[in-house]
Amino acid sequence: MARRLILIGTLLIVALALGACMGAPLPAEPTETAPEETEPEPLETATPAGTATAPVPTVAPTPTPTVEERVAEVEWPGSMRVRDGEVVRLSLMAVAEAAGVGTPEVAGHEVATGTMEMPVARPGYAGTVSASLTAAELEVKGAGSAEQALVPGGTNTWHWTVSAPQAGTYHPVLTVSVHWEPTEGSDGARPIEEQVWSRVLTVEARGMLGLAGPQIDWLGTVGSVLGTVASLPFLERVLASAWSRLRRREDDVI
After folding, report:
1. How far, in Å, are 34, 59, 157, 179 from residue 108 at the CA level?
2. Is 92 exposed, middle or buried (0-12, 13-18, 19+ CB in 10 A)?
3. Domain 66-208 adopts which CATH fold?
4. What mean pLDDT is predicted for residues 114-125?
5. CB distance 181 to 165 below 8 Å
6. pTM of the predicted model, to two decimals?
7. Tens digit of pLDDT for each residue in 218-248?
8. Domain boundaries along the sequence of the chain
9. What is the DSSP-derived secondary structure letter of residue 34?
10. DSSP three-state, residue 122
11. 152 pairs with which residues across the strands?
């Protein structure tokens, strides 16, 4: 009887335990919460202590130059002999000083004149003017300085000596440029180089008797050799002796 009571009690306890488990609410599943979006903060560049920020250099505006009308006169040999030196002249003069233009300094040379707009002054700058003469295969030698002072109302003149090594047609080119150099106190100013005028010339070089330069050189060499031989003191006696022998042979034959 006691065993039954113990068994019944045990079953009741188990039944109560199972009922308690079945009636208990299930634990809620955890919910995930999306993280809030935040804007990134701007990065700050740290400047080392004691370091000064370098100022941005400023370029000063280029002042407008004062322009003056000038007369350009060019004199050159339109035709020349091979190996002869001829003069080419360029003159830039104010209109008031150009009264006698058109007359060549060397007889037979060609002269051409024309007007040009030439900058003569620029605030904060000192100006110089230069001229150049270039030609392929033509020998050019300048007389005087190529760079001259630029004076308002003044005159600038250049001379070159040209020679042709052989016969042919040459096209020398004249070019005029103005160089501006900043004066003291012109902060941020830079030198300025500008070409203001140019002209192409035509030169015909002719050889002696229609010969080219190398042929003229060869004839000159032959002439020098013949002249040297003819100046020898014993040449006359040698020729006289040879002539006498020739006459004797002719007499013997007769």
Report:
1. 102, 53, 20, 34
2. buried
3. Immunoglobulin-like (2.60.40)
4. 93
5. no
6. 0.60
7. 545 545 544 555 555 655 666 677 767 766 7
8. 66-208
9. P
10. coil
11. none
